[in-house]
UniProtKB/TrEMBL annotation:
Domain of life of the source: Bacteria
Matching PROSITE patterns: PROKAR_LIPOPROTEIN (PS51257)
The protein, known as: Lipoprotein
Length: 120
């Protein structure tokens, strides 16, 4: 009787493993657009909303590395600007450099102007 119960449990366990594992699908993380991510991070820096840009700059530099794979020229320009931000303590230099980076990314200046409304 004990052998029969052990055998039944073993058969069920193997069945569950085979069924459960055979239908596994790989989950791919959503692709991030480095330009869009850079804009999201740089806007508060350019607006002076971050007291210290250092914590955000690690992510900025990682995104620049990703961008260099598809647009090496822009990536190299932004890398220089990113290093400039990381090497200064002057908030005005940080803001101005972040604004320049946003312009290079096509985000324009972040002067706080209201977005234009589509015409009817």
């Amino acid at each position: 009787m004990l052998q029969r119960t052990t055998y039944a449990i073993l058969v069920m366990a193997v069945t569950v493993l085979v069924i459960g594992c055979s239908q596994a699908k790989s989950v791919k993380p959503p692709e991030r657009n480095p330009k869009e991510e850079l804009i999201k991070i740089l806007q508060p820096i350019a607006e002076g909303k971050l007291q210290q840009a250092g914590s955000a700059m690690g992510e900025v530099m990682n995104l620049i590395e990703q961008l260099k794979k598809t647009d090496p020229a822009l990536g190299n320009e932004l890398e220089g600007d990113g290093k400039k931000i990381m090497s200064t303590q002057d908030i005005n230099t940080v803001k101005a450099t972040a604004q320049a980076m946003l312009q290079k990314l096509g985000a324009g200046s972040s002067g706080g102007a209201a977005p234009s409304q589509p015409s009817p």
